[in-house]
Amino acid sequence: MRHLALGAGALAALAGCAAQVAPLQQYSAAPSVAADIRDRAGNPKAVARATQVGDGIRLQVTASNMPTGTYGAHVHTTGRCDAPTFDTAGAHWNPTNHRHGKNNPAGMHKGDLPNLVIGADGRGSMEVTLPNASLTGAINRLMDLDGAALVVHASADDYRTDPSGNSGGRIACGVFR
Q: How far apart are CA 102 and CA 19, in angstroms?
């Protein structure tokens, strides 16, 4: 009987360990990711945060120390930001295979964002919710094996021209982590 009690004790201990491991696995999918957006010289320009909210992703961008103006901003498919061109970030995130821009009848990409407007003080922000998207889920997943990045372009996005809204070169980039 004593041997059976030890066996039961060992089973109880194992069950306790399993109960402790399961919650850790439950939280392995991050509810949010962030990107430090830097220019070609490596200077910080903005911070982006993507957070899972229901069946969408809320994206918030807060910029500082940027020249006054209006800039196109897009989520790109690859989590790499090699200066000076940031071409390593790949194309716009487009898991639904649409055209570019909210004003394009065949649009829009999941990675299409509102323009980032910077005031005279060098600051600006934007917030948007991307519907039917997920950070790590099965449908329209942002954080796949090669990650994702947020790219700021040199000019305003016209919200229509495919593939990038005629928004010019890539001037800043940050990898979501």
A: 47
CB–CB of 66/118 below 8 Å? yes
100-128: per-residue pLDDT in tens? 989 988 878 899 999 999 999 999 999 99
Taking the CA of residue 80 as centre, how many other CA atoms within 13 Å lie in the half-sphere pointing to its CB?
13
Q: Which of these, 108, 104, 114, 115, lies nearest to 140 by C-alpha position?
A: 108
Rounded CA separation 129/121 (Å): 26
What is the dihedral sign for C-alpha 116, 175, 128, 107? positive
3-state secondary structure of 9: helix
pLDDT at 21: 35
Q: pTM of the entire structure?
A: 0.81
In sequence order, what DSSP letters do the residues of 65-80 get, joined into one string?
Answer: S--SEEE-EEEESSS-
Question: Residue 108 gets which letter from DSSP?
Answer: -
pLDDT band at 139 (very low <50, low <70, confident <90, very high): confident
